[in-house]
Amino acid sequence: MNTWRRENMADLTKAFDFAHPDYSIPSMPNASYPSTDSKGNWNGYSVCEQKYKTTRPPPPDGLQKESDALKTEQGFKKMRGNPTEGRYLTFEMNGFALANSGDHLKAIKASTSYNDKAQRFVLHQSGAQFSISSAVDNSTISGTDLKKAGGSAATYTITDMGNGSGYTI
Q1: 121-126 and 88-89: which strand pairing?
Q2: Is residue 29 part of a domain?
């Protein structure tokens, strides 16, 4: 992976826990030998075309409903790697989460399902730094205060410490 991509995209090596490696050998399924013709040349493409007449299934136009097409699943995942903008984040430490309490930030007991809207924040990237807005009212974090939309937002550098250790802000 080239240096530019590692610096500007995700550094996926941080997804691994090199401090506690897993040396176990995974079991692999047995794969059948690829299809060949009488001369030993691989012919998988032509065999598939012959076996499956419709190689490009038609789109399901008209069969889906808007409620199904726009469906999103609820849930959460622990963030790994470099932060990106546009998704909900909860800033949690020692069982407490940062929350929007109106004009100020406060630490409250973290929601186990991460569904408390007051604990949700969104990153907005500006170069290598981020401004952080609340999902409640779109106000932005500036120190321990929340500035209403249009106010001056502070920017923060968020650094992944690697190996699932968390982040520094």
Answers
A1: antiparallel
A2: no
Is 65 a member of any domain?
Answer: no
As given in the structure block, the two tokens for residue 58 are 């038609």
What are the start-end ranges of the E strands in the chain? 88-89, 92-93, 96-100, 105-109, 121-126, 129-134, 140-142, 145-147, 159-160, 167-168
Helix, strand or coil, per DSSP, at residue 60: coil
At position 79, the amino acid (one-letter code) is M
Q: 139 and 149 in contact (C-beta within 8 Å)?
A: yes
107, β-bridge pairs: 98
Report CA 30 to chain centroid distance, whole Å. 33
31-87 pLDDT, tens per residue? 989 999 999 999 988 898 888 888 777 777 777 777 777 777 777 788 888 888 888
CB atoms within 10 A of CB 118: 18
Q: Is the pLDDT of residue 151 over 70?
A: no
The dihedrals phi and psi of 99, each to the nearest 5 degrees, come to -140, 150
Residue 36 DSSP class:
B
Domains in the chain, number: 1
